[in-house]
């Protein structure tokens, strides 16, 4: 028996729910083909812009920029952070989904986020601390510290409210770009807006939830990139 909550799309009549909060979007799209195309695009954008993939993209941006200093960071150092701090928690969530312990990889039910979040924060914090002790590039240590702080803040917020993780991740990447001189500001701004709209269209979040996630991520990414 599936434990997936009764998520619906904005053109459905049933209410949206995360198990506790009930954001509602009252809108109807009458053209089935247009409706299906929009939902398909929103779903795939959400998959491509999932937090682990965005974190890897942000690390790639860090590798090229060297934290804005122009000196790239080697792949070995990047892997030393990405594997334990990004890949390991993602694989743990995938295992929980496979075991039926959480509804999906996006942790759509807010009540099921606490343990995966605790693991993610612990992995990021331990990795950042270990890299600092190993004299890793300062920009990477700073990135790890900011990523840990962002995950910690999201963990606290999600205790009472379902903030958007997707919006927070792309917001953090955009914040890094701003700290590095806004080299790709148009690209990241478009991605933040697109992901926010996609999460609302799919009925996963309310506008306030994606706005809060993007703002929190933007602040963390900007501070982490300074």
Helix and strand arrangement:
Layout lengths: L31 H17 L2 H15 L9 H24 L15 H20 L4 H20 L7 H15 L5 H17 L5 H19 L1
Helix pairs in contact: 1-7, 2-3, 2-6, 3-4, 4-5, 5-8, 6-7, 6-8, 7-8
H/E element order: HHHHHHHH
**Residue share in β-strands:** under 5%
Question: pLDDT average, as an integer?
Answer: 83
Structural class: mainly alpha
The Rg value, from CA coordinates, equals: 18 Å
Low-pLDDT segments: 1-17, 19-27
- How many strands in all? 0
Helical residue percent band:
55-70%
Give the termini distance in whole angstroms: 48 Å
Number of helices: 8
Sheet with most strands: none
What does this protein look like?
Helix 3 (75-98) runs antiparallel to helix 4 (114-133). This protein has helices at residues 32-48, 51-65, 75-98, 114-133, 138-157, 165-179, 185-201, 207-225. With 226 residues, the protein is mostly helical. The chain is globular. The model is unreliable at 1-17 and 19-27 (pLDDT under 50). It contains 8 helices and no strands.
Give the structure's gist in a few sentences.
Helices cover 65% and strands 0% of the residues.
Task: Write out key terms for the chains shown.
65% helix, disordered N terminus, mainly alpha, 226 residues, 8 helices
């Amino acid at each position: 028996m599936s434990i997936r909550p009764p998520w619906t799309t904005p053109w459905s009549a049933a209410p949206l729910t995360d198990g506790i909060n009930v954001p509602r979007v009252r809108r109807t799209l009458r053209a089935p083909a247009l409706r299906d195309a929009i939902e398909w695009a929103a779903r795939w954008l959400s998959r491509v812009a999932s937090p682990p993939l965005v974190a890897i993209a942000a690390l790639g941006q860090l590798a090229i920029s060297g934290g804005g200093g122009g000196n790239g960071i080697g792949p070995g150092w990047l892997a030393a952070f990405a594997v334990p701090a990004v890949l390991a928690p993602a694989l743990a969530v995938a295992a929980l989904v496979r075991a039926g312990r959480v509804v999906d990889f996006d942790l759509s039910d807010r009540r099921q986020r606490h343990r995966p979040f605790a693991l993610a924060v612990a992995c990021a914090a331990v990795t950042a601390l270990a890299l600092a002790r190993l004299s890793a590039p300062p920009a990477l240590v700073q990135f790890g510290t900011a990523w840990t702080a962002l995950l910690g803040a999201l963990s606290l917020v999600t205790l009472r409210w379902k903030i958007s993780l997707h919006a927070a991740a792309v917001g953090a990447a955009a914040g890094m770009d701003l700290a590095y001189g806004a080299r790709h500001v148009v690209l990241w701004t478009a991605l933040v807006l697109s992901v926010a709209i996609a999460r609302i269209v799919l009925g996963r979040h309310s506008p306030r939830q994606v706005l809060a996630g993007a703002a929190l991520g933007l602040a963390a990414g900007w501070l982490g990139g300074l």
